[in-house]
Design goal:
The complex is a heterodimer of chains A (160) and B (59). Chain A is 24% helix and 31% strand. With 160 residues, chain A is α/β, with parallel strands linked by helices. In chain A, the strands form 2 sheets. In chain A, strands 1, 2, 3, 5, 6, 7, 8 and 9 form an 8-stranded mixed beta sheet that branches. In chain A, strands 4-10 form a two-stranded antiparallel sheet. The longest helix of chain B has 23 residues, at 7-29. The radius of gyration of chain B is 26 Å and the shape is rod-shaped. Classes of the chains: A alpha/beta (160), B mainly alpha (59).
């Protein structure tokens, strides 16, 4: 299968991480719900990569299940900062080197602390962005720990 | 050469690259179009009949 060689793919290849690429037609604001439907996977095993900023303007990445939201209040409490807000799309693009909707935690332009929901690691396989819109990579969750410096947190809040 | 690294300029460049990528995905998913030669070999029945009739008239 042909797939794009993104900075994320370069990192995975360099670290000899096995992955399976999945390409689908991207839909603006379709999110993990759309990709899960197209690829016929459980949305819970789709992992979204989100960029946030603290009140001190320090950026961070959060990896969260596709079907739940991040409680910024809880996350701020856990990492001991006053507030956390989503980074603006332009700021997120500049920090990661990826376009919103195609952000991967691997191979980001700027090194940032990465927080991941604890229960992601209970899954057998996860589907995470490979660095392009409409491009997911299927990996074992332990690959996240092997490649990235992950801090596990509990900051999930169910969609309403 | 100076490259504008402002968040806005970076986003614009990423958007342009993304458009190319999305087009390539569409291209990968699209079916091959029939060439003019293929179309010629697949004439509808009535076209084939009129061709045969013309041939007969000539004979």
């Amino acid at each position: 299968m042909n797939y794009p060689i993104t900075p994320a793919i370069r990192v995975l290849r360099e670290k000899k991480i096995e992955f399976e690429p999945h390409i689908y037609e991207y839909v603006e604001k379709g999110g993990t719900k759309h990709s899960a439907e197209i690829l016929k996977i459980d949305e819970h095993s789709g992992v979204k990569t989100l960029v946030f900023e603290t009140n001190e303007k320090k950026s961070l990445i959060v990896l969260q299940h596709g079907d739940v939201q991040v409680s910024t209040k809880e996350l701020a409490r856990v990492i001991n900062v006053k507030t956390i807000t989503p980074a603006s799309p332009e700021r997120a693009n500049k920090l990661t080197g990826y376009l919103i909707g195609g952000t991967s935690p691997f191979g980001t332009k700027t090194k940032m602390p990465i927080y991941a929901e604890k229960t992601i690691f209970n899954l057998e396989r996860i589907y995470i962005n490979g660095g392009k819109r409409g491009f997911l990579i299927e990996i074992e969750p332990r690959a996240l720990e092997e490649v990235l410096n992950i801090k596990k947190v509990e900051a999930a809040v169910k969609d309403e | 050469m100076k490259v504008d690294m402002s968040p806005k300029a970076v986003s614009e460049r990423l958007k342009t690259l993304d458009e190319l990528w999305l087009l390539s995905v569409k291209l990968m998913n699209s079916k091959k179009l029939k060439s003019a030669k293929d179309n010629k070999n697949e004439l509808p029945d009535n076209a084939r009949d009129s061709r045969a009739a013309r041939k007969e008239n000539r004979v």
